[in-house]
Amino acid sequence: MTYCPRCGVEVEANKIKCPLCNTTLQPLDEEKPDYKSKYPDDVPTEEQKPPKEKKKKRLLAFEITSVVLVSPIIISITTNLIIDQTVTWSLYPTATLLLAWFMISAPLLFTKNIIAIAFGEFIPLLIFFLVIDIIDNGTLNWYVRVALPIIFSIGVAGFIIAFGTLKSKNKGLNIPAFILFGASIICLIVDVCVTSYINSALGLGWSLYVLVPAVLTGGFLLYLHFRVTRNKDLKRRLQP
Q: Is the pTM of this model over 0.70?
């Protein structure tokens, strides 16, 4: 087909002049190029990519993580054996790196299974502190009184942050407020556990300096968030 060079209208091949603007036409050997096919408007985003491609990327990240974390484990154990002819201090970095491996691998391998991810993050923490306590002197000392409550507080704080984030229709300043509340719970329980373990009596110390400003700041952020949200909803309703 022929196209008018002036107005761009499509003209039949046997026409000499454009029926719209009366411009004299010259015959073209090739059709007008299809720019849409060469330069598509819809470029697939990361969310629109095929599931197989996403899975390959996650598996690649898992393999890279495994190699990166296993290498220092081998190096530390080998160095410990060469220097001391036994495995002693290398158990600490080994346990720490294995904990990191489990916690990184869980969301990579179980992206849609929230329960599996939660167990993959929670169970390694329990085992890690248990191993560290046993490595210390071969018996359990602080694991039950210190480690378990701290791990529990981390779980509660994570639940508060996740629950508040998922249930919030309008996300904004309420998210950092939930994080502050979760951090306050962790600091409070850590302070109580450590103080009771050292002094053999319940008590609060440094956590009060964190708890009070964190709760006040979080409450103020929630106030600002709901006030801004309410004003936006009011403006939408008043708009014609």
A: no
Q: How far is C-alpha 61 from the geometric centre of its chain's CA atoms?
A: 14
Identity of the amino acid at 164: G
Output the DSSP codes for 175-217: HHHHHHHHHHHHHHHHHHHHHHHHHSS----THHHHHHHHHHH
In this structure, what token pair is assigned to residue 94?
A: 């080994």
Write b or e for each residue in 73-100: b if 16 or more Cβ atoms lie within 10 A of its Cβ, otherwise e. beebeeebeeeeeeeeebbeebbbbbbe
Under 8 Å between Cβ of 41 and 66:
no
Q: Are 69 and 61 in contact (CB under 8 A)?
A: no
- Give which of 152, 87, 163 is closest to 125, Cα–Cα: 152
pLDDT tens per residue, range 94-150: 888 888 888 788 888 887 777 777 777 788 888 888 888 888 777 888 888 888 888
Beta bridge partners of 10: 3
